[in-house]
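Case study: SDR family oxidoreductase.
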Amino acid sequence: MNKLENKVTVVTGGNSGIGFGIAEAFRNHGAIGTITGRNKETLDNAITQLGGNFIAIPGDVNNSNDLENVFKKTFEKFGKIDVLAVNAGGIVDGVPMGTISDVTEESYDRYMDLNLKSAYFTVQKSLPYLNDGASIILIGSSAAHRAAPGMAIYSAAKAALISLAKGLSLDLLPRKIRVNALSPGSIDTPVFGKLVPQEHLEQVKQMWIDITPVGRQGLPSDIGNAAVFLASDDSTFIVGTEILSDGGLTNIS
Ligand code: NDP
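Here is what the predicted structure looks like once written out:
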């Protein structure tokens, strides 16, 4: 059954990994809309795979003019916006996360800007264009609950994002706009190639498989399917909370 028939969706970072998985799942349930990202080539490839009912609008989520442009153009093209998936985030290109002695004020700000500030202002810039009753999904992380060496800033930003879902959902209640966080565990996406040298890639993925109770890494479609639920009318009583899709990762010590 098409749970999102004719819903207009915006997925930030919809040109790669989890964002693409979300856009694909939305498309599979009848949605139309926009994907964003900075890389023109991967945006074009994603649009080819998503088909004619999706458009790509390039932009940097840390640039407010770019954000404004995404929502304005989406509204001009489709006439409304029903669902916003705030997914862009993760690794800052060329800036290692590092443990506390490696982190500079600049690298701290860059990670917070990408993984927290951009989400806040993505939501803010969307509001003039968003339908009353819309669903906003903030992509968090199991890292908000489960520490890993050298990832303190990322974990803190994602934990704050979950808090943002709670607070913003109250701010937006008068418009019946729901805000929830959807937190993936370890998902097999291109991010691992950015974090780990090629020769160690399989070993690192195997480590995640070994520590994930269900015995596999997640797929972008796992997150996509959960996002469809949060975007759809099946979840209208779910407000300002977090859903974990992590194969049980956060259940283990
Ligand atoms: P990818 O690296 O595959 O995708 C990251 C996406 O974010 C790309 O589409 C990228 O597009 C976009 N992006 C990054 N920086 C910017 C920017 N400044 N402006 C606009 N777009 C940007 O990673 P994943 O798919 O794995 O990650 C997606 C989300 O899921 C992130 O928020 C990440 O923190 C979260 N997550 C991932 C997990 C995993 O195991 N993979 C686990 C938990 C959470 P472009 O480069 O074209 O700008």
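For the exam, be able to explain this: The chain has a mean pLDDT of 97.
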